[in-house]
């Protein structure tokens, strides 16, 4: 059968290997497997969320509230924006899908960082758009601007902090950049790890409200999958000018968020103590990774997230190292498909990290 010609160009997203797969492939007991590959919260999720969700479990027969008013109101209060400035997606991934479909087509160009979140490219290819990339590893906004001037992309993606490298853009520089972009270019500020960045260094904090007040061409993305510990519930959101949100709504399938997920996210947003604790633990444990890298004489990128990127030495091939770790039940992310000889490791619990240091020092 022949498919849409754009399909040839699309590669599957390579998700972090699930624990179940390692059990089957290597015959390792699930209890001996540690997954530090998808930047999930190692502390799980808030107990309040678990209690709240179990209370409404009997509501499963009914379709969810498609207005999503409880979660939208909670987000609008949290960020001090209007309800009409918010859209909820099945993960912020789905919001990325909506906005590319709403804004771009096969004649469009989409600009992104040389190394960044893989889903931007995959969704761009859905519509056959041309992908433009900068050359530097970190976001270089001067280079972004230069390419913007020459190529007139219809969408610009800025991921801050960036996945899979963990570095973040200075908020003042970001705003200076946005002021120079014309109002018909959609700029996406993906803040999937913003809850971490703002604690480590407030100069990296980008507030959705500031974006919405100043720009009608910028959308901020956030997710419950990382700091909130709800990766399995699939809830993310976009915050933007109401005119953008209205367009995105045209592409939203009805009931795209389940009743249980809506409840989980709404409660999670209210449990700030859980998030704060997670973030503090994260940076305490991250110090151990910095020490480990020093001991091993490998480079570590200064990270504003819940993962670290270890840039290996030339005699240490990242795909080989990741495979050797996998055979011992330690799942990390090899970044060779991003053109880096590096591995990305999610900062886990104290015990998980200790195990990583033990195995990695044997292997390296
Ligand atoms: C994890 C992540 C997302 C979205 O995750 P969802 O689970 O779909 O909400 C978006 N952007 C970046 C950079 C991420 O790392």
From TrEMBL:
Lineage: Bacteria, Pseudomonadati, Campylobacterota, Epsilonproteobacteria, Campylobacterales
E.C. numbers: 2.6.1.9
Catalytic reactions of this protein: L-histidinol phosphate + 2-oxoglutarate = 3-(imidazol-4-yl)-2-oxopropyl phosphate + L-glutamate
Modified sites of kind N6-(pyridoxal phosphate)lysine: 226
Cofactor needs: pyridoxal 5'-phosphate
Pfam families found in the cross-reference section: Aminotran_1_2
Self-association and partners: Homodimer.
Pathway the protein contributes to: Amino-acid biosynthesis; L-histidine biosynthesis; L-histidine from 5-phospho-alpha-D-ribose 1-diphosphate: step 7/9
Protein name listed in UniProt: Histidinol-phosphate aminotransferase
UniProt similarity note: Belongs to the class-II pyridoxal-phosphate-dependent aminotransferase family. Histidinol-phosphate aminotransferase subfamily.
UniProt KW keywords: Amino-acid biosynthesis, Aminotransferase, Histidine biosynthesis, Pyridoxal phosphate, Transferase
Enzyme class: transferase
One annotated GO biological process: L-histidine biosynthetic process
Top-level taxon in the UniProt lineage: Bacteria
HAMAP family named in the record: HisC_aminotrans_2 (MF_01023)
Record GO terms (molecular function): histidinol-phosphate transaminase activity; pyridoxal phosphate binding
Residue ranges annotated for the Aminotransferase class I/classII large domain, each copy included: 31-356
């Amino acid at each position: 059968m022949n498919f849409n010609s754009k399909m040839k160009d699309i590669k599957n997203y390579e998700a972090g290997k699930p624990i179940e797969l390692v059990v089957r492939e290597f015959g390792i007991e699930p209890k001996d497997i540690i997954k530090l590959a998808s930047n999930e919260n190692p502390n799980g999720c808030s107990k309040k969320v678990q209690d709240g969700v179990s209370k409404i479990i009997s509501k499963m027969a009914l379709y969810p509230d498609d207005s999503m008013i409880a979660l939208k109101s909670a987000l609008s209060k949290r960020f001090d924006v209007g309800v009409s400035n918010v859209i909820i997606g099945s993960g912020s991934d789905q919001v990325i899908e909506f906005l590319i479909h709403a804004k771009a087509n096969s004649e469009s160009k989409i600009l992104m960082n040389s190394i960044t979140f893989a889903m931007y490219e995959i969704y761009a290819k859905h519509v056959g758009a041309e992908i433009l990339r900068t050359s530097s590893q970190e976001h270089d906004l001067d280079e972004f601007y230069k390419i913007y001037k020459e190529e007139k992309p219809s969408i610009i993606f800025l991921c801050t902090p960036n996945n899979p490298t963990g570095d973040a853009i200075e908020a003042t520089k970001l705003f200076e950049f946005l002021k120079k972009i014309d109002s018909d270019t959609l700029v996406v500020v993906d803040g999937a790890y913003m809850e971490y960045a703002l604690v480590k260094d407030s100069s990296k904090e980008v507030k959705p409200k500031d974006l919405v007040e100043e720009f009608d061409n910028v959308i901020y993305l956030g997710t419950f999958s990382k700091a909130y510990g709800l990766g399995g519930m699939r809830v993310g959101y976009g915050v933007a000018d109401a005119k953008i949100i209205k367009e995105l709504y045209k592409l939203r399938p009805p009931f795209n968020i389940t009743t249980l997920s809506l409840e989980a996210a709404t409660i999670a947003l209210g449990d700030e103590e859980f998030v704060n604790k997670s973030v503090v633990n994260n940076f305490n444990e991250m110090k151990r990774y910095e020490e480990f890298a020093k001991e091993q004489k490998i480079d570590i990128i200064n990270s504003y997230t819940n993962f670290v990127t270890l840039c290996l030495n030339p005699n240490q091939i990242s795909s080989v190292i990741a495979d050797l770790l996998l055979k011992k039940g330690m799942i990390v992310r090899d970044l060779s498909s991003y053109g880096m000889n590096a591995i990305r490791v999610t900062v886990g619990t104290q015990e998980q990290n200790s195990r990583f240091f033990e195995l990695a020092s044997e292997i390296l």
